[in-house]
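Quick log. Single chain, no ligands specified.
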Amino acid sequence: MRRRPGGDTPATRGGTPRARTETAARHVSDPLRDEDHQALVDEISRLLRTPATLEARDFSLIAFASHSGVDETVVDPVRTRTILSRSSPAGVRRWFEGFGITRATGPVRIPAEPAAGVTTGRICLPARHRGVVHGYVWLLDDGSLSPEDPRMPEAMAIAGRIGASLGARARPGARPSEALRRLLTAPPAARPGAVGAVSQALGAAADGPVALVAVRPWPVDAEAPPPAPPVLAATVLPGTAHAGRLPGDADAGTRPALALLVRLRDHRAEPSAAREAAEAAMARLPGPARGTARAGIAICRGAPGGDPSPARAPEVDTHGAEAEPGGPAGWPVGWRRALAAAGVAAVEPRAGRIAEWSALGAHRLLTSLPAAPPDPAVRVLLRPAHRELARTAEVWLDLAGRAGETARELGIHRQTLYYRLARVEDLTGLRMADGRDRLLLHMALKAARLHGID
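-> predicted structure:
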């Protein structure tokens, strides 16, 4: 039987608290720590067939798991006091630390001490990472286990994974960054809880205007840079199918992306702080990765009462595009837009290496549409043999049909331009004098390049 985190302490590993203490204990659970760590504690409990409890380095409860067939009805005084007070008394912590658990690299057996209120012995598995202990896994010592048990190396390996996770979350800015990660990856049904966790982690900053920055692709072995003002949070998110293929990497859409949350003074101001954060993040990448990375920016309004912007036009940003819903509830939308902007930057030279979603123009519409086969009328133009014709038509359409500018942009004579446009008409059956045909051709060429169809 699995229990939610919330009810054990150094002196309680492996028992079932009475109803009132169990109710009190539930309030100490941390929504940012329960999910992954609970699964690992359950894994240790199943492996060793005994109750297991995980606590942080300061002895605050993180997660626990019971196990069928183990008598958990005994509640010793230390356990009861700790559950009700939601932390371990200093004397209890010193008593357990006196057995060397802060320095141990393997299992430590701690005997019962009825005089101290500890009526059941424990086995402690230190959760270490890079030489530092970040927490403890406590096991009920009923005599069936020993530190020499052949299953202990596997249990210690799991404890090491816990230590690595706790160590990562102990970095500056880790709590807001983990909250941001949960919000941006949560399914719709789980978003209300994720929004609450973000608000709790960021405080008043969560209600103000922010920018979501996406840097993609982000190397699979690279960590997120530590957040520093005005960056509120930074996290690496798993790959997601989205608009745009990055240069030289057809699989970029399924590779990780870096997410940055940047605080803004006004949702209608130029997001220079977001651009600087994107540039700083890309500068950390090694040469090859730096060359292919692109960034996208999407601005999100603050929640009602949290945005210092003037009251006029509160839902329109610097380029006239509608901003996201106010507050953290709108950040998943902003993240998708930032990803899309990075995808456009990858294939549209005019967008630069850092693109703002609000400045994408027609690409805002194209990135919101699913990838689909090209229109039959332009399919022939997308063959490799006609790549030059497709490029000519796209530039001509980008420049509103101005022949002189198009010829200069392509470095060709006007007569060559006219010849190529005539060939485009012959191949596609579209007429450049027809605005509807021009629109179809223009959007089809843009969509094909955006989705890597060439």
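Residues 152-169 form the longest helix (18 residues).
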